[in-house]
């Protein structure tokens, strides 16, 4: 079937989308004390955030003040900016936004906390903050062992209200990527619940213990003491999550529609999507996923998107795919390795409802922070 | 110096930009019979395309009909869409555009040529086309040995005017990436000039022999018989080109301004740009470039952007960089490995003229084809 859409474009199957949203909400809901606060980084769409909230999410997570501003302007009323704000202009914008919606911001250093304190004091506000903890990924987050001392200092600042701790770790064990997402999730939750207890013992009233990624959220949610999970990718799912065993390829709501533009030889088809269409941050062949190529080709199990230039995708065809006799002009649907960074390349996605297709601008993408 | 811009953002130094444009125009201009038709994929900005034309370029090259439409709407009057058009809707759009500007389209298969022929006949137009040749990159382009037969068939189609051949090969020798860009460019030009001669002998009036990338353009331009070069990256330059010896890091007009958001340990700084800010299509450590990390950190020679997550860049600090004592809130300028795909991630770039900064929307990015 040829779809009358210009290619390349990202198509989101709204039935699968609805199912993914409901499934995660139901599963998190089995743990009575755990809230779901999805990360909107995957879709960057207020309308999808609203679907998540309608299904039971307490609010959403974003990475940027600008994303929070767009989401709030479109009716999302409860947002956690899970990223340290360290410049006055962004802190001011966040405080202004907190006059309109429930807003929580992140902090992971005394320098950052003091800047928020000074700005909040000047504007006559109190800011709800969560302390980010590094549980092994080595990116932002105060080192685990240094967290109690920093939390104590932050708790003393009069214009900050330290109500929680959070971490992001993903599918990681012993500092290395892992396929054992159950163990990873359990350990992540355990580390954070333990830390929250230590902070409470020290007199700091930690309410929120927020953890979890798409692969680890449900395992971390089962840990007593965890109060919130923040999966993002689950909303669309992708080939990486399928490889991790978190979903099946049939659960992937997002795919890229491309057109075969050239058939230079029997074993090669060129499609009109390259590295400006498919994200390249999850590379083929890397541990522990060992993905072959940059996406899964729907219906052609031995075709592999092995090379990309900016606007060209080189599809190596095995015997079965060669037998399919692809023609110039044929369309293919490809599930990308990483849907979050793939959507981020596109100004629009196409929402598919059965046989109808609706273009939707990805409102919160391409934002300066 | 702290620049009062929200980060992350791409900054283009307009002095370096002007110098890069002039240098390429001058060098290509030394070959009297060779025209310059820059690929606009790097900047995707009509205003920069106009600067290239003002400096002597005959027109520009793009990859998509939509990009051509945006460029034409902003005054660019001579465009080559160097990409096979294989769907009726795009061919129609191209033909409509050719009523307003000088337009050349690409073809690399009989199927594509016949579709253009039928569409052009229906609309009562004649379309100027160039045949794409595969000179070793194995992406689009008819195989070199099959080109004469296909060219003969295309030349017989009454609504197509086959005026040229073109190829893209980049820094490639014997099918592999190479640092010997002089040999690569010479061979590329030679292959195409030879083929043009064979086609002319066969009675096909080939006027344009269009070749070249930023690394190979000037070497290919020196080959007798080459009539046009299409470099793209040179306009901004980047770390990859510097590593290839094509330019110095000082010639890079484009950089990404980021802010240090976290200093979790002495050997690590986290900046607010990840894989949604820096392109990941030119990976660290890959042959023949052996680049360390995803960008060159201005002023910190032993700091390396070794890991990216979506919104985090992990900067490993060597002894010298550690001595610089980076603070949370400090800004850094980073020259990305690949500027074309990095610019493509951003809705806007910031044009720097001395101490003044002007935001410019990247008008032709994010286009559906």
Automatic annotation (TrEMBL), chains A, B:
Keywords annotated in UniProt: Lyase
Family annotation (Gene3D superfamilies): Alanine racemase (3.20.20.10), D-serine dehydratase-like domain (2.40.37.20)
Record-linked Pfam families: Ala_racemase_N, D-ser_dehydrat
GO molecular function: D-serine ammonia-lyase activity
Top-level lineage group: Bacteria
SMART domains, per database record: D-ser_dehydrat
Record domain D-serine dehydratase-like: where: 253-353
The protein's name in its UniProt record: Amino acid aldolase
Protein source organism: Paenibacillus pectinilyticus
